[in-house]
Write a structure and sequence with these properties.
It is a multi-pass membrane protein. 80% of the residues lie in helices and 0% in strands. The relative contact order is 0.16. With 457 residues, the chain is mainly α.
Length: 457
Amino acid sequence: MAEALAGQQALSWRERISYGIADMGFNFYWANIATFLLFFYTDIFGISAAAAASMMFAIKLVNAFTDPLIGALADRTTTRYGKFRPYLVWGALPLGAAAVLTYTTPDLDHDGKLAWAYGSYLLMMVCYTAINIPYNALSGVMSADPQERSTINGLRFICAFGGSTLVTAATPALVQWLGAGDDKLGWQLTMGAWAVAASLLFVLSFANTRERIAPPPGQRSNVLQDVRDLAGNGPWLVLFFLALIIMVTITLRTTTAAYYFKYYVGRPELMASFVPTYMMAAAVGAAATPLMTRFIDKKMLMIVLMSLTAVLSAAFFAVPPDQVGLMFVLQAALGLVLGPKSPLAFSMYADTADYTEWRTGRRATAMTFAAATFSQKLGTALAVAVIGALFTALGYVPNATQSSGSQAGIVWLMSLIPAAFALLAVAVMCCYRLDGARLQGIQADLAARKTSLFPQA
């Protein structure tokens, strides 16, 4: 009973914020990867768009399959500090070192550079996964209260969008300042600075958070059983495909933005404020999530948000290159409607972990989040593959005036293509069945089970 009550108690603001700031650290990496890495490979590192896109797709695909393994390992980790929190400290240094290597340009021929890119990027993504998946799972064991989960995930993504805003705004300037005209050195040192800052935030998060929800006493299961449990979890399967589709939608626009402003608008310097505009608006949207979920069911809210995303993305198709103000207005609007998406999704992942425990008597929180991360990485890989294939088919040439076909492809990748994926996300979300009333009943059943196990507590 004590455990059940502890899982329902309100968290302090110190703990909520401490959990959130770690995601700012993760976005010191992720925002660089999503916004700049393909551009870095084609225009700084010196490999073709097709080679870079193929490499990133292959690594994302391989890394996606490591996610369930890391989730299974985290679920079976037992320390005095909990199952998931220690990974924030254990993985900080390896991740930082791998990131610096990824943004290092060695003096090698094309094949040597490509081999370096494969090795360093794979290492960075494995290290990122090894710390990020336990962190994601941590939100599912800090509290059993669905509204509390919405709150901590809302705060988490405020910090995440804040970190992304800082990275996208400051990285180009840091590259110029630290590199002093040498872009290759500038990118390496800039990534090193972000790695140090991220590591400090991970340590602070570890020190100020606690795990309160444990698997049922005496639980015994293997990895295959965990996978079978997820495969039988209908709400989780919906979220799996939803995450994949939404990640395609976001990655298409985020990765294309650098090319959009360099080759279509003709003002690459606007990137320093365009992506941060989205991130700041998304932070506002994330901040509003706990309030919205008090009045709107999570499923319906997600459907409305993705419908608006489709409309706003499609609107970019009609924006001429000289209407910069309209681009920024649409970008801010997209940030507002997509901002709540992430805290909503991660709160629902935690809910599906409860659903698995209620249905099977087993709990695998990290595996639940790991398999969700798996789908996100597949979505990112698919988006990069689409970009690379389209660029190759339309004759993209780095650092040169683009053909009309290449420019048209860039505009499609910023507008109609992500809009189509957003509409697909709406269709998928209509299949989600774990609404608020059903979840409330599940929570009550789980609390009653724990009370029966600990009648004297």
